[in-house]
Amino acid sequence: MAAPMEAWDRQFHPGAAPFGNFINYYSFNPPEKRIRFLPEDLLNIISYSGRKKNATVLDIGCNSGDLTVALYMHLKKQHLDKKEQGSSKMCLASADENDQDISSNPAAIEPDNTVAIKVLGCDIDDTLITRANESNLHPESISFHRMDFMCDASRSSNLTEFLSRHSETSGRFDLVCCFSLTMWIHLQHGDAGLHKFLKEASLLSRFLLVEPQPWKCYKSAVRRVRKVGIENSWHFKELNIRDKVEEDIINYLTSTCQMELVRTLGETHWERKLFLFRNATGVSDTQS
Questions:
Q1: Which one, of 220, 223, 141, 227, lies nearest residue 180 by Cα?
Q2: Residue range 110-135, pLDDT digits in tens
């Protein structure tokens, strides 16, 4: 019986997540560790101060969806706060002017600042996506799909269908999030794969939020795998992008992908920085 138990232990060991698809990820890295760094006015930023009436968000590598939901709630909170503030101001103005019966005309106090938030979370792991859908309390606003982002056909079919259901997209999401994902793409697909990922994510986004893992995280991941004795197809030994991986990601996004670094949002307790980029192409058409 020892051998089957050892195999079972290896299956659920942290080293047994070659794509970063940990089954208990948010138990050791809860959503609030990232959410606390997001701008309070993030919805305002990606919707251009409410000029866009639909805000679409893509969370790549969403795992079981906890962070995806927390991101949605962060955006929704700002939207609700904005509506409440707008309603209060209009109520006061109407009361001061005393030129209409507010109670008989509710529309008079309702500001035109409605932004519909639509979020898509995707992950390569079927089990995690099933868990995300089962626990989803906001199916009208959040969707979860199984998708291999690095597969052109899978990416195109899933994202094109989602974007086609929402206006004002122009084939792009208003915000694309890549939380602690770049290392796994890099290990699985090599230097060229990392650059392809960054390019495709940029093409799909108006704003891009990236939390890259520094090189020390790569070495820790390799040690975990060796300790458990699990085989994988990682390209670790072949990687040329190493010690300055974060710097390379920023340089590639800004020089090749035509992205602008808006700001560094902060650094998590795992010493991972969150960077917010803006697409330098096709942005002004939404602001006009």
A1: 220
A2: 444 689 999 999 999 999 999 999 99
